[in-house]
Design brief:
The complex is a heterodimer of chains A (110) and B (113).
Chain A (H helix, E strand, L loop, with lengths): L2 E4 L4 E4 L4 E3 L1 E4 L6 E6 L5 E7 L5 E4 L2 E4 L9 E3 L8 E9 L2 E4 L3 E6 L1
Parallel strand pairs in A: 2-12
Antiparallel strand pairs in A: 1-4, 3-9, 5-6, 5-10, 7-8, 8-9, 10-11, 10-12
Chain B lengths: L3 E4 L2 E4 L5 E7 L6 E7 L5 E8 L5 E2 L8 E7 L2 E6 L8 E7 L6 E2 L3 E5 L1
Classes of the chains: A mainly beta (110), B mainly beta (113).
Chain lengths: 110, 113
């Protein structure tokens, strides 16, 4: 069945560091891909999405490119801030349902 | 964006009791809502799809009699954990789709003693 695999956390970085969180997927067909963010005590929020191969989703300085050839959707940000500390989930739509990765906890130190 | 609320945010109960969790769409109508369960350091697992005015659709391995879902109106779905046991302790999250995008509630932390 459809599945999403994320790099294991937790990830701890210093402010202004470069961030990459790896995400790979297995799916039949051509799923849409998403990154969700969960701030402490809050629900999941859509961070960005891509609906077809080679699409780049971007929001709040974060980017991810839909790579069909490597079945990947890695999340990147050039300069992280303390306020980016949260749990990040990669997800895809499979059979009309969202399938999530296990989440990666990111902590940014000042 | 659309807002989904959940109540309560935290609940602690004794083993054997039943607990009801509410999920509300505050500024839109939702014919379909989703219930997820999240274990510590693990992903969200879809438990069931709640359909307004009809029976919920449960995922494989989810006990229908254990997790009762009622979607009585276009803005409210409830999840009742019946005869709760410590292994039911978890973080329960609901979501709804007013259009293409899913919006998630803040979650309910259930602890069964």
């Amino acid at each position: 069945g459809d599945s999403v695999t994320q790099m294991e956390g937790p990830v701890t970085l210093s402010e202004e560091a470069f961030l990459t969180i790896n995400c790979t997927y297995t799916a039949t067909g051509y799923p849409s891909l998403f990154w969700y963010v969960q701030y402490p005590g809050e629900g999941l929020q859509l961070l960005l999405k891509a609906t077809k191969a080679d699409d780049k989703g971007s929001n709040k300085g974060f980017e991810a490119t839909y790579r069909k050839e490597t079945t990947s959707f890695h999340l990147e940000k050039g300069s992280v801030q303390v306020s980016d500390s949260a749990v990040y989930f990669c997800a895809l739509t499979g059979a009309q349902k969202l399938v999530f990765g296990q989440g990666t906890r990111l902590t940014i130190n000042p | 964006g659309a807002v989904v609320s959940q109540h309560p945010s935290r609940v602690i109960c004794k083993s054997g009791t039943s607990v009801k969790i509410e999920c509300r769409s505050l500024d839109f109508q939702a014919t379909t809502m989703f219930w997820y369960r999240q274990f510590p350091k693990q992903s969200l697992m879809l438990m069931a799809t709640s359909n307004e005015g009809s029976k919920a659709t449960y995922e494989q391995g989810v006990e229908k009699d254990k997790f009762l879902i009622n979607h009585a109106s276009l803005t409210l779905s409830t999840l009742t954990v019946t005869s709760a046991h410590p292994e039911d302790s978890s973080f329960y999250i609901c979501s709804a789709k007013p259009g293409y995008e899913q919006f998630f509630g803040p979650g309910t932390r259930l602890t069964v003693l």
